[in-house]
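Cross-check.
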Amino acid sequence: MYKTAVITLSDRAYSGEYEDVSGKILRSMLPEGFEVTEYIVLPDCYERLKNELIRLCDNGSCTLILTTGGTGLAPGDITPEATMAAAERNVPGIAEALRAGSMKYTKKAMLSRGVSVIRKNTLIINLPGSPKAVRESMEIISDVLLHAADILSGIKADG
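Predicted model, tokenized:
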């Protein structure tokens, strides 16, 4: 079972103004073989997200981290920048697949700035914040998550 963290970035969910629906959807749509061991709701804060990502990766507590929110064009959308600051290696194909696959649902998908990276042996994937986009994104990437986790953990060779 691969340990997974779900991190929601939302000032309003953090303050309790509204329920974190996207994070709950992520938790429910994880493919078999993954278990959410950390569920965190943070405000849109660069330093807090960067520090959480580093903590989760460096202590080896997660093989997969999925973030939701903060990937758009608004001034407070800092998720990609904080994720890149924690990154050691880039995995552009996942972010490219998410944008390309989401284009069949909405042209607004091209405005997503989400990234996918590796730190230590942890894969970090930024997903959009809307519940609909989270569902669609998980449909796009679910089939490759187990293979990626197997490679990162050394169970399988790359390929």
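The chain has a mean pLDDT of 96. The domain at 2-152 is CATH 3.40.980.10 (Molybdenum Cofactor Biosythetic Enzyme; Chain A). Passed to J.P. for a second look.
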